[in-house]
Amino acid sequence: MIRIACPFCGERDHSEFTYGGDASVVYPPLDAPAEDWAEAVFLRENIRGMQAETWHHVSGCRLWLIVERDTMTHEIRSVRPAHPGIARALGINVEEEA
Amino acid sequence: MSARRLIQGGRIDREKSLRFRWDDRVLSGHPGDSLASALLANNQWVLGRSFKYHRPRGIMSAGVEESGAIVTVGKGDRRVVNTKATMQELHDGMEASGQNAWPSVRQDLGAINGLFSRFFSAGFYYKTFMGIPPFEWGRGTGMWMWYEKFIRRAAGMGNASREPDPDHYDHVHGFCDVLVVGSGIAGMSAALAAAEAGLEVVLVEQDWEPGGDLLGQYGAEAERRRQGMVQDLQTAGVRLMLRTTAFGLYDNGVAGLLERVTDHLKDPHRDLPRQRFHVLRARQTILATGAIERGIAFGNNDRPGVMTADSAGLYLNRYGVLAGEQVVVATNNDSAYNVALDLAGAGAEVSVLDARARIPGRLSELAADADVNLRNNCTVMKANGANGIRSVNVAIRSGGTRSGGTRSGGAWKAGSRQDCDLVLVSGGWSPVVNLMSHRGVRPTWNADIACFLVPEPHEGIRMAGAAAGCWTVNDCAQSGLSAGRAAARALGREVTIVDAPAPGGWESPIRPLYEVRIDGWKLKSLVDPQHDVTSDDVRLAHREGFVSVEHLKRYTTLGMATDGGKVGNVIGLALMAEALGRDIPEVGTTTFRPPYTPVSIGALRGRSVDTHFRPLRRTPLHDWNLAHGATMTMAGLWHRPWYFARDGETISEAYVRETETTRRAVGLCDVTSLGKIAVQGPDATEFLNRVYTNPFAKLPIGKARYGIMLRDDGIVMDDGTTWRLGETEYFMTTTTAHAAKVMAWLEELLQTRWPDLRVHVTSVSEQWSGCAVAGPKSREVLAACVADGAILDNDRFPFMGVIETELKGGIPCRIARISFSGELAYEAYVPSDYGPAMMDLLWAAAAEHDGCLYGLEALGAMRIEKGHVTGAELDGRVTLEDAGLGRMGSENKSYIGSALRKRPELLREDRPRLVGILPRDRSQKFNAGSILCHPDAVSGLGEGWITGVTHSPSNGHWIGIGFISGGHEAWDGKTAIAADPVRRGNVEVEIVSPHMYDPDGEKMHG
Fold this sequence. Notes:
The complex is a heterodimer.
Chain A (H helix, E strand, L loop, with lengths): L2 E4 L3 E4 L4 E5 L11 H9 L7 E7 L7 E7 L5 E6 L2 H6 L4 H4 L1
Antiparallel strand pairs in A: 1-2, 3-4, 4-5, 5-6
Chain B lengths: L3 E2 L12 E5 L2 E5 L5 H7 L6 E2 L6 E2 L12 E4 L6 E5 L10 E3 L14 H4 L8 H6 L12 H13 L14 E13 L3 H12 L4 E4 L15 H17 L2 E3 L2 E6 L4 E7 L14 E13 L3 E3 L12 E3 H9 L3 E2 L3 E6 L4 H10 L3 E6 L6 H9 L3 E4 L1 E7 L6 E7 L14 E8 L2 E5 L2 E3 L2 H5 L5 E3 L4 E3 L7 E3 L9 H18 L35 E3 L4 E2 H9 L5 H8 L12 H12 L3 H4 L13 H5 L11 E2 L3 H6 L2 E6 L2 E7 L6 H14 L2 E4 L4 E6 L3 H8 L12 E7 L5 E11 L2 E6 L4 H15 L6 E4 L4 E7 L3 H6 L18 E6 L3 E6 L8 E7 L3 H14 L3 E2 L2 H11 L45 E8 L11 E3 L10 E9 L4 E9 L1 H4 L4 E6 L4 E8 L9 H4 L1
Parallel strand pairs in B: 2-8, 9-10, 9-14, 10-11, 14-28, 16-24, 18-19, 18-24, 19-20, 31-33, 34-44
Antiparallel strand pairs in B: 1-17, 2-3, 4-5, 6-7, 6-8, 12-13, 13-14, 15-25, 21-22, 22-23, 26-27, 29-30, 32-33, 34-40, 35-38, 35-39, 36-37, 37-38, 40-43, 41-42, 42-43, 45-48, 45-50, 46-47, 46-49, 47-48, 49-50
């Protein structure tokens, strides 16, 4: 059981969350060509080590979070709201964290 | 064989007797007994038959590693198989029996397998029954499948009850600062040290008494020490959990614990759970899990009457049972001497065969004083006796050092025979590093004390005591103190760090001995007795090319029995290392995985059973629906009305009537379960315009629009109507099935991709009760219920119009003129608590027009007639074009999925497209789930499939909806086959447009 420190709710079991996906993906503009979208949607790095990923605190505050997790050890380095405005409201300095 | 209860000694309550049944006999024991100690006290030796060869088996240990006394306990629906008698507390009236034998463990016909044992070597069944003539020359695996069930029946692990489990189980969630596993002297010291630093400590102990090794030590001093420490623990506020096994360690300090609550009780209170499954989140963990004594592989080392030396000491000192009168102790280390002395003190005639050349002087003197016969450079080569021990053949070291001998034990020659009735073995100790292994830590081999250790802390987990290789009581105490202090320091407490003692502590070093082999002797030496893996099997595996220990394990099944390799792993590794000409560290060890000891499925499931298997969702109209004759059905998690039968109607009669009534007059249907999302904010319009495939930018206030949203990859995610309530406010509806998914998706988009959009989404599914009012008379019905009926005029309230108004009595209400049924229809929503009041109003008005209530079955019938898609069609593989909704994809804007829905493969004309399906012979029926095939090729994946069928009242025959390659245009005038091979067979069908009722929509626009 991974424990995730939700910046709004505190540390919680991962069963309260759902996994989103690779947080490093930058989705192209909606009018970008299909090739760009195919790359963003289908091509993923299979990272061994620290990976930024999105998690949804679906049974909690419903924040989407960016979690840095080691895929080998499940060690979690950082957790922050994906939305920069929410992060600021919670007193988390997004520029520094990122 | 002469085990007996001594007249004094032990921790049992001799004042009370417990009667229990063992097979066909009634025996007695005392409170404080384990089932194993009680059986031993009654001189019962053959307790089971082995897995493969049906060799007789008896008690081999006194703990969780037991591989002989594996029995069935309980009766009827409470029969539990593969119980380790050593871990089962005795209670009055217990019923237990041996397993894997017929007619009984004492006379077992299956023992004939033993005569053919040389054929039953590693991989025997696979080699014999798979792929080798004459059994299945060229026949694939079919014959194996046929033989397998007989083979499995012969390989016995007991017969589980086939009745439902009558017990219940609880799940418990908890937290602590420090979890300590094991209440031996190290564990108690560690728990005390942490608690005294002000930490919240949980100490778990799998036994029913705390104390660990202290329970098996002779004398009053050990007991005084034990009681003192237990007292200190209580004073310090340590939470001590007995009968609780830490079966697994997981990420981030999470431990899985299994607490056995009632397994030791004769008549447990019925409100008690049988077991509790704890998920404990600890900030630091200390594993004081002890060590398990290893055996030595010699001939017939699995005979009843061969057991670990330490266990004989425990049976003597804890249970007051002397396991034999004439005892041979085979050892290669110091630890067995205490047992030998205790047994001699209890009156047994004891011989110690020490494999070492030199024996520490102090031990020699003690042995001499106690009349223990001591021989160095000797060990046991073979045990003699069929169902017990009569004698052993002694092996004498030849050559002396490793040269000329085997790495696994040196060179031996046969010695004389020595009479005895009990053989105790100590081949060294294996610290229980299993839980550390669960965390992916590979233990390292310590050659000095011949065992695997995990010296470094990992993820806040530390080993202590014998689990850290400390062999003396004082070292264990210090090791525990050291670990407890270190954990406290790691949690920021100001404590003085204490050095951990170095591993070891014997006066004279262990001399590794894993197997006794002598040229010219064929010995049956068991490495893993529970799975009948012999030393020859390990060598055979090596000869057949297995090099990795992980492969060795799987091929021979070494370590894969219910003890999980606690007994045989190290010996197996040593033999493999020898065969490879390497040392143990180079060969490595296999990974231990959870659970440490078996966990019942019931404990895993907890209360998630029957109606609690998953949540049940009811609409606010639930009671109202039931009061009006609804038969309910499950729709996802929801309980929804299925049909409203009148006067003995069947479901088929009811839904056909409901459909006809709705199409002719009016029907009411609870649609509360639809997902409802409030979309609010200055950028709400822009947001919806990006999410939906069709334009939303110019939706006027007071209008609704049907919308479809795609996933990023261009596949349809969901559909529904969205109502514009104001400049910055929308009311979105989703399908029942996808409500949660759509909500999470919108949140993801707003929080991760488009944080600049000023939009907030709120799930309001539970805030509104909804009712569909459908049919030609729906306007009249609704008009009779709203405060001002005139607002429903067609001009003021056209198709897709939205109004916010009040029902009579001042009930706030929002209504949209939308239709799923294809009739003139409305959906009305009121705040949840007003739902029944709304239904009372509507139902009274509908009755005026000879209306009806309708359920999911009629809803489905009408939507199939109209060709409307639901979750059955939108299954995650369907594009807009596939669903016949290509015109919904705007060409004038970009939206989620717009790029990837144009991938060439998704635009192929021959993709399966939504169609209507009619039986060619109109009197015939067909089933949802049928495969649609070309008449010339009724096989394989076919050309399409049927997602829904109904008897169509409008058409007067069965119709269906589904997908077929190329859509109905490609099948115009052709016949397809609806193939349903395991149910109805083949039905000839026509493929038509999915819009099988009022295709131009005149009725709903009227």
